[in-house]
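Bug #2210: token dump truncated for ATPase AAA-type core domain-containing protein?
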Amino acid sequence: MKKSLEKIFNTGIRIVEVRVRNFRSLKSVDLSLNRLTLLIGPNNSGKTSFLEALFAAMGAGRRVLSSDDIYIKPNESSPPYNRSILIDVLIRPIKEDGTFSDTFPEGSYWLNLWRNGIAQDDNDNDFMAFRTKLTWKQESAEYSVERQFLREWISDSSKIEDAEIISEAGTVSAKQLEPMALHFMDAKRDIDDDMRRQGSFWRRMTSDLGLSDEDIKSFEKILTNINEGIVKKSGVLKHLESALGDLYNVMSGEREGIELAPVARKLRDLTKGIDVNFTTKGSQAFPLIRHGMGTRSMASILVFRAFMKWRSLMAKEDAVHPMLALEEPEAHLHPQAQRALFGQIREIPGQVIISSHSPYVVFHADFSLSYAFKSISSWYTRVFKYFPHYKAVFLKVIRFLFIACGSTPSFLYISPCVASTSVATRTWCTWIPSASGRTTVTT
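Reproduced locally. Full output below:
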């Protein structure tokens, strides 16, 4: 392997900030990102919209932006042609210890990849920033998407439209984004689908088992012998083989023979039928695809982690920066399992952005950057910085609810907890235990 496991978490770069303008309900949203970033808030508050905006800018298999994605004011039936979607992404080099570097090292993979697109700030520190823009083109009478390098990252985010483009660097190509492409795993993830779907992380890992040509030839000979042995001893298969021989009486061509293969004869086909048995102590063994959605959802996340670790280990130096947008990782999981979930997520290399509306996620996640999304109305989203030192207050609230309910509530809903900037500086939390009506706690 070309890298040690300890080094795959430091890829030489970090996406440090994302600015979104006029994308769905996100009229103006700026978020700083760390290695692990948490987005919390109720349903329809804009969390998924932010993830999809970032996916539109740099996603693996990027979604197509359209006029349907443009922010619309309450009194508008459609967006005006002069309103554009802007998604700006800022990337900085980092050192081996995880701190920011002043420059992209000479000869580094990222410097060679973006050379003409790398710029310097007022302190002569290197950065790479690019803009994804959906705008109306009068000459073609249609919307068009462009991706271009930015020469500056304006500190006043209200003036980002004035940022200068590096015209001589040309457009940002798919090749220049692919090594850090964002992968989006929504709440409907399922290992069963992954094992069947062409192009999934499972399929991409198992498509090449890393065997030598000699090993492949040897194993496929064994598979041929297994097939012949099964057919020879199975009266049913021998009967079917004989019946299918009548194809020669109908179809033109010289008779060569009919062969049944109850087991795939080629290793490349055998991997498509790989099964995983998952057994807990004292229970019967079942294939993973027959387990509940909680187990299958978690397995899908673990396969992604395995894929990214393997890809990083096998890549050239600093050639991969894994990016994952993970929607509701707690979906279908028992609260006890949710507590153990984040130890697994922390092992995912690169950067991870999680969206959730579960209080268990807030309590058990130790993320340095967290944001609360609040839907002001159906057409506008506000984002607040969540301060980790309020976690102790939240834990007191949850203990109070446990005592009040007599047991652990089957479901708790956070809507959302936001650090107020008022003079009183209060934290307002609304909790709704499913079996006990509505409880409001103010601290």
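Output looks complete on our side. Residues 1-6, 406-443 have pLDDT under 50 and may be disordered. Marking as cannot-reproduce; reopen if the truncation happens again.
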